[in-house]
Amino acid sequence: KYASAFYGPFRNAIHTRLQFGDKKTYQMNPANIQEAVREALLDQEEGADMLMVKPALPYLDVIAKLKEKTLLPVGAYHVSGEYAMIMAAHEKGYLDAQSTLFESLVSIKRAGADFIFTYAAPQILDLLN
Fold first, then answer.
1. What 8-state DSSP symbol labels residue 29?
2. DSSP readout, 34-86?
3. Radius of gyration of the chain (CA)
4. Tell me, what CATH number does 86's domain have?
5. Paired strand residues for 76
6. How far apart are CA 92 and CA 76, in angstroms?
7. So which residues are the catalytic ones?
8. What range defines the domain where residue 55 resides?
């Protein structure tokens, strides 16, 4: 889990922005892919059943690198900020939400994610049906 600005909408929704201190003390540095790989391999050694990268889009390289380094399933969490960014751009008329959400999730899958958690599940389900 990276120290990321993309968690903002979720933290705002549950009113935890500063309530529990600076999460950067225990979340990973966004600039350090080696730390992500090292931590993931430690998780694997400790018996993890899967690995999860969150947020997803800014860390497609991490998803791809983990797929190279482990046989565990690698998941991606398309977090609230990623979803909110697309929806806000849609509301302003800059992007089509449905096609942008779909393209974003395809890129996550292409990077190697075995599964994706996303706030966009209802829209994608509508698109696929």
1. P
2. HHHHHHHHHHHHTT-S-EEESSSGGGHHHHHHHHHH-SS-EEEEE-HHHHHHH
3. 15
4. 3.20.20.70
5. 53, 116
6. 27
7. 1, 54
8. 5-128
Which two three-digit tokens encode residue 95? 């992007």
Give the number of domains in the chain. Answer: 1
Q: 116: part of which helix (H) or strand (E)?
A: strand 115-118
Of 76, 2, 17, 69, the C-alpha closest to 40 is 69
Identity of the amino acid at 111: A
Q: Residue 108 corresponds to which amino acid?
A: I
Give the mean model confidence (pLDDT) for residues 5-21: 51
Model pLDDT for residues 35-94, shown as the tens digit of each residue: 899 999 999 999 999 999 989 999 999 999 999 999 999 999 999 889 999 999 999 999
Alpha carbon distance 19, 35 (integer Å): 27
Side-by-side strand order, sheet with 74-78? 51-53, 74-78, 115-118
What pLDDT, on a 0 to 100 scale, did the predictor assign at position 13?
A: 46
Query: How far apart (Å, rounded) are the C-alpha atoms in residues 39 and 48?
Result: 11
